Amino acid sequence: MFKPQAIYYENGIKDYYLGKFLLDKYSDVPKIEIENHNNIEVMRNKPNSEFANMKKNLIIGVRKTHKFVENHKTSDFLVPYTSSGCTAMCMYCYLVCNYNKCSYLRLFVNREKMLDKIIKTSENSEKELTFEIGSNSDLVLENTITGNLVWTIENFANTKKGFLTFPTKFDMIDDILDINHNGKIIVRMSVNPQEIINKVEFGTSRLDSRINAINKLKKSGYKIGILIAPVILVNNWQSLYKDLIQTLSDKLCYKVKKDTFFEIIFMTYSFVHTKINEEAFPNAINLFDKNLMTGRGKGKYMYKSEIKKEAEIYLRNLMKKYFPNNKIMYVV
Ligand code: SF4
Fold it and tell me: In which domain, by residue range, is 267 found?
């Protein structure tokens, strides 16, 4: 259970139920008042080597930006929701590209406004829309602190139209198993070989517990997607991903295998990641491989297209063998 080492908070959070709840929940934790959750000078000035320590803090504020971004993968809109950042430390985390070393967990207490906008957009639309509410954080993890996922699902379940979806790398899903979701929630579990989880995805749940969580969620009627993500081309990647797909085939229950869909995403990396990781995790593996990767503008790196294509064919063949009836939504 995450217990923050310090809380940085905007005074305005006291006007919200959730703000008061969190201040009360952590009444024994040192608190520092801040002007703006986006600009905490004392955090910005810390060296990269402090990255893991910075993740032990909790930042609480009021979300000011509520702009939906159109999306064409597994949802119609990416929605800024109740948190950004995370207490875990995956070495490739995409949030580091946006927030640099300040990708610690920030909670936003004005959840009513955010969910209200989703519900209104959904009900005013002619077609059924799907809203991605977890593109900035991990809501299963966040729920252990705020209870926001339970609150969100219970308050969205009886809307006339629409779906919510979010990805996760965590197994703490018991709180949402017995609540009314009305079939309107699509949980997308992100998986990787256990060896990669150990070496790269610090602070996330183990593979076998993620698989158990998928089975339990399905039993409770949730729609399920599986992300094989990010695919990382370490030396023994072929055998690792073969084992992973075989394990999924062996351990996922019949109901999941019947209709789950997959997304396959290759790792993208960046100059910022290399700098933070070498200083924050000096003994960890180096994910940047100049023989396999190429620049993609703005200091980002991706696998060279011919290398990625070859890996994609390998993975698609495995999927054809072990999950012949399941849709792969995309490979990127
Ligand atoms: S669990 Fe997700 S949000 Fe958290 S560090 Fe890993 S990739 Fe980033």
Answer: 7-331
Give the integer Cα–Cα distance in Å for 158 and 50: 44
Domains of the chain: total: 1
Percent of the chain with pLDDT over 90: 97
117 within a domain of the structure (yes/no): yes
DSSP 78-106: E---SEEB-SSEETT-THHHHHGGG-S-E
Residue 82, sorted as left (phi over 0), alpha (psi -120 to 50) or beta, turns out to be: alpha
Q: Atom 3 of ligand 1 has which residue's CA nearest to it? A: 137
Virtual torsion, Cα 308, 309, 315, 321, nearest 10 deg: 180
Q: With the CA atoms of 133, 139, 143 and 144 taken in that order, what torsion angle do they form, in degrees rounded to the nearest 10?
A: -170
Among 56, 169, 200, the mutation site with the greatest number of ligand 1 atoms within 8 A of its Cβ is 169
Decide if 166 is inside a domain.
yes
Phi first, then psi, for residue 247 (nearest 5°) are -60, -45
Which is the closest atom of ligand 1 to the Cα of 96?
8
Ligand 1 neighbours, Cβ below 6 Å, are 86, 88-90, 93, 95, 137-138, 169, 204
2 lies in some domain? no
Residue 209 lies in a domain: yes
Angle value at C-alpha 34, between 279 and 1, nearest 5 degrees: 60
Count of CB atoms situated within 10 Å of the CB of 252: 21
Q: What is the CATH number of the domain that holds 193?
A: 3.80.30.30
Whether the predicted model's global pTM rises above the 0.85 cut: yes
Q: How confident is the model at residue 112 (pLDDT cuts 50, 70, 90)?
A: very high
Q: What is the pLDDT of residue 1?
A: 83
262-304: per-residue pLDDT in tens?
999 999 999 999 999 999 999 999 999 999 999 988 899 999 9
For residue 167, give the nearest of 214, 132, 129, 193 by alpha carbon: 132
Strands laid side by side in the 268-270 sheet = 268-270, 300-303, 293-295
Q: Which of 82, 95, 137, 140 to mutate to test the pocket of ligand 1 (most atoms within 8 A of CB)?
A: 95
